[in-house]
Design a protein that fits this description.
The chain is α/β, with parallel strands linked by helices. It has 18 helices and 20 strands. The strands form five sheets. Strands 1, 2, 3, 4, 5, 6, 17 and 18 form an eight-stranded mixed β-sheet that branches. The protein binds flavin-adenine dinucleotide and NADP nicotinamide-adenine-dinucleotide phosphate (NAP). The site of NADP nicotinamide-adenine-dinucleotide phosphate has 27 residues, from helix 5.
C-alpha cells in the first residue's frame, strides 16, 4: 500500500543553510516544509561556537545573506568582522523577520533517513522517536558541525571544567564527546577564566582566536601546539560610516563582484607573480596587504602563491619574518613559525594580537609535536616528557568536517545502501550536492563543492537556489524524482580530484584533506576549481535539462 508523504520537503539544520531553505521553499514556492534542528535555537555554527574571540574572517557586509535587499539594507554590523554574538543576533533577526521558527522543530536530531522505494519519499527518524516523511530532503547540517572526538585518552578523568570550542556551552559540562543541544539562546554570561590555570589544545583558527582572549584573563595559560599556523592580522575595527553608506548604496553591484571572485568577496586583484617582481616590490605588496588584514594577504598579493611553490615560499618567509618580529623570545617565535606546509594549504587563520599573547608572563607554549600528549589526567595532562597542571581544559581540536554530519545521520538510499558504505573510501558526489543512489537528497555545500573556499552565505544561497529550482522543475513537469547518474558522479569526482591535485592543498594535513581525523580517508573534500567556474558548470547542467541527472515520475504515479 502506498502512502502520501507528510511534507513536501524536510530541511535539516537551522544555520545559514536551513533558514534560507525554509524561507525559500515556504514563502517563495508555497511548499509544505518542516525543519529539524538539534540545537535549542537557530544559528548553526554561530549557536555552537560561543568560545571567547569567535568571529568571522570575511567582512560582515559580505558574510551575510544577499537574497533580500530589505534585509541587507536594514541590518547594521557594528564591526567590519562581526563577533559570534552579533552573527547569532543577525540569524535570530532573520528567523524573526521571516517568521521561520514556526516551521522548525528545535531540540530534535535526525538520527535516520531511509529512502522508501515503494513510495518515492524519505522516511526521516528523529531522536524524539518519531518518523516524518517528505518527498525531498535538503540537508543544511553544516560542514563544521561535528566536533572531533579527542584522540588522546583520559579526557573523562579530568576533574576540572572541559570546554570544546565547537560545542561551547553556557555552563561547563561533563565531557561526553557529544553535543548537548539544550543550551539557551544568547545573551549568556561568558565563561570567566580570571585567575584560573587554563590549558588549550589546538592552534587552528578556533584555538588562535580563543587563546588570544583567554590569555587576557587566565592566571596561567598553557598552549599545547602540535602544528603552528600561518596566522596573519584580521584587520578588524569599527565600520567607517561613510564607507558603509557607500557600500550599502552599491550592495547589488558588490554582491555581483563578490560572486565573480573565487573567495566570494570583492577583493582587490593580485599581481600575477611573486617571483617576477623585485624583492622591494614584493615586500611593499606584502606590507600593504598584511596591514590591511584578512584574506588580502593571500588573495590580493600574488596570483601564483596558490600554485607555485617558489612564489608561495616568499609569502611563507614573509609571514615567518613577521612572527619573529612580533614574538620577543626567539625560541618561542621559532616554535610558532610553520615550516611543514605551504602558506594557505590549510585555511589561513586570522588573528588580532595572537603572537603578542606569547610575550605575556602568564602564557606558556608547549610543543606537543616533539613530545606528544600521552593522556589527560585528573589534574592536567602528561606529554611523553612532562606533566602539566591546570583547572580548565579547552579543546580547540577541530571538526570531523564535511562528511561527519552526513555520516552521523544514518542515511540509507536505494537498495538499502548506506551512505557510510558508499563513502567508505571518501565522499563521491555529483556537483557536491547530490549522490547517485540517494535520490531527492540535496547536500547544501556538500563535499566536492567550493563550500568553505568561498564565502559561505553565498555558497549556501547558490546551493539552496539550485536545489529548489530542481524541485520546482520536477513539479512543473509532473516529475518527482531526481537522481545523479553514476557516470556523471564519477566524472565529477575525477574532475574535483584533478583540480585538488593542481593546488597546494594536498601538501598539508588538514581537515580539507580529511587528514585531521584518524582513519578518515585522505581525500580533498572541497572543490578547488573556483566558485565562479563551479557556478557556470551548474548553470550549464541546468540549461541542458539537468545534464547528468535522471528525472522520473514517482513510482506510484508510474504504476497508474
Ligand atoms: P551550520 O551553521 O553548521 O548549521 C548546521 C546545523 O545543523 C547546526 O545547527 C546543527 O545543530 C544542525 N544539525 C546537524 N546535524 C543535525 C542532525 N542530524 N539533526 C538535526 N540538526 C542537525 N565560513 C565563512 O565563509 N566565513 C567565516 O568567517 C567563517 N567562520 C567560521 C567560524 C567558525 C568558528 C566555524 C566553526 C565555521 C566558520 N565558517 C565560516 C564556516 C561556517 O560553518 C559557515 O559559514 C556557515 O555558518 C555554515 O552554515 P550552515 O547552515 O551550512 O551550517
Ligand atoms: P582545525 O583547524 O582543524 O585545528 C585543530 C587544531 O587542533 C590543530 O592545531 C590540530 O593540530 C590540533 N589538534 C587536533 N588533534 C590534536 C591532538 N590529538 N593533539 C594535539 N593537537 C591536536 O580546527 P578549528 O581551529 O576548529 O578550525 C576549523 C575550521 O573552522 C577553520 O579552518 C575555519 O574554516 C573555521 N573557523 C573559522 C574561523 C574564523 O576565523 N572565522 C574561526 C574558527 C574556525 P594539527 O594541525 O597538528 O592537526
Amino acid at each position: 500500500m502506498s502512502h502520501s508523504q507528510t511534507h513536501d520537503v524536510i530541511v535539516i539544520g537551522a544555520g545559514f543553510a536551513g533558514l534560507y531553505s525554509v524561507h525559500k521553499l515556504r514563502d517563495q514556492m508555497g511548499l509544505d516544509v518542516t525543519a529539524f534542528e538539534a540545537a535549542s535555537g537557530v544559528g548553526g555554527t554561530w549557536f555552537w561556537n560561543r568560545y571567547p574571540g569567535a568571529r568571522c574572517d570575511i567582512e560582515s557586509i559580505h558574510y551575510s545573506y544577499s537574497f533580500s535587499e530589505e534585509l541587507q539594507q536594514e541590518w547594521n554590523w557594528p564591526e567590519r568582522y562581526a563577533g559570534q554574538p552579533e552573527i547569532l543576533d543577525y540569524l535570530n533577526h532573520v528567523a524573526d523577520r521571516f517568521d521561520l521558527r514556526r516551521n522548525i522543530q528545535f531540540n530534535t536530531r535526525v538520527t535516520s533517513m531511509v529512502w522508501d522505494e515503494e513510495n518515492s519519499f524519505w522516511r526521516v527518524g528523529t531522536d524524539d522517536g518519531k518518523t516524518t516523511t517528505a518527498r525531498y530532503v535538503i540537508s543544511g547540517a553544516g560542514n563544521l558541525s561535528v566536533p572531533k572526538e579527542p584522540d588522546f585518552p583520559g579526557v573523562k578523568d579530568f576533574q576540572g571544567d572541559v570546554y570544546v570550542t565547537g560545542n561551547w556551552p553556557q555552563e561547563p559540562v561533563d565531557f561526553t564527546g557529544k553535543r548537548v543541544g539544550v543550551i539557551g539562546n544568547w545573551p549568556q554570561e561568558p565563561v570567566d577564566f580570571t585567575g584560573k590555570r587554563v590549558g588549550v589544545i589546538g592552534t587552528g583558527s578556533s584555538g588562535i582566536q580563543a587563546i588570544t582572549e583567554i590569555a587576557k584573563q587566565a592566571g596561567h595559560l598553557t598552549v599545547f601546539q602540535r602544528t603552528p599556523n600561518f596566522a596573519t592580522p584580521i584587520g578588524n575595527g569599527p565600520i567607517d560610516p561613510e564607507l558603509y553608506a557607500d557600500q550599502k548604496a552599491r550592495y547589488a553591484e558588490l554582491r555581483k563582484e563578490a560572486r565573480n571572485h573565487v573567495q566570494g568577496v570583492p577583493l582587490e586583484a593580485p599581481l600575477p607573480s611573486a617571483i617576477e617582481v623585485s624583492a622591494e616590490k614584493r615586500k611593499e605588496v606584502y606590507d600593504k596587504r598584511y596591514a590591511q588584514g584578512g584574506f588580502r594577504m593571500f588573495l590580493s598579493t600574488f596570483a601564483d602563491i596558490y600554485h607555485s611553490k617558489a612564489s608561495n615560499d616568499t609569502a611563507a618567509d614573509y609571514i615567518r619574518g613577521k612572527i619573529q618580529e612580533r614574538v620577543v623570545d626567539p625560541a618561542v617565535a621559532e616554535l610558532l613559525s610553520p615550516t611543514d606546509h605551504p602558506y594557505a594549504a590549510k585555511r589561513p587563520a586570522f588573528e588580532n594580537g595572537y603572537f603578542e599573547a606569547f610575550n605575556q608572563d602568564n602564557v606558556e607554549l608547549v610543543d606537543v609535536k616533539s613530545n606528544p600528549i600521552e593522556r589527560v589526567t585528573a589534574t592536567g595532562l602528561n606529554t611523553t616528557t612532562d606533566e602539566y597542571e591546570f583547572d580548565v581544559l579547552v579543546l580547540a581540536t577541530g571538526f570531523d568536517a564535511m562528511t561527519g554530519p552526513l555520516m552521523a545521520m544514518g542515511i540509507v538510499g536505494r537498495n538499502g545502501e548506506r551512505l557510510q558504505d558508499k563513502w567508505a573510501d571518501g565522499p563521491e558526489t555529483y556537483l557536491g550536492i547530490t549522490v547517485n543512489g540517494f535520490p531527492n537528497l540535496f547536500l547544501i555545500t556538500g563535499p566536492q563543492s567550493p563550500s568553505v573556499l568561498y564565502n559561505m552565505p553565498l555558497a549556501i544561497e547558490d546551493h539552496v537556489d539550485f536545489a529548489t529550482a530542481a524541485i520546482a522543475h520536477l513539479n512543473e513537469h509532473d516529475l518527482a524524482i531526481i537522481e545523479a547518474d553514476a557516470e556523471a558522479e564519477k566524472a565529477w569526482v575525477d574532475h574535483a580530484n584533478e583540480k585538488a591535485a593542481e593546488s597546494l592543498l594536498p601538501e598539508a594535513n588538514s581537515w580539507f584533506m580529511g587528514s585531521n581525523i584518524p582513519g578518515k580517508p585522505r581525500r580533498c573534500l572541497v572543490y578547488v576549481g573556483g566558485a565562479p567556474t563551479y557556478r557556470a558548470i551548474c548553470d550549464e547542467v541546468v540549461a541542458e535539462g539537468y545534464r547528468g541527472f535522471e528525472l522520473s515520475p514517482a513510482v506510484e504515479l508510474a504504476q497508474l
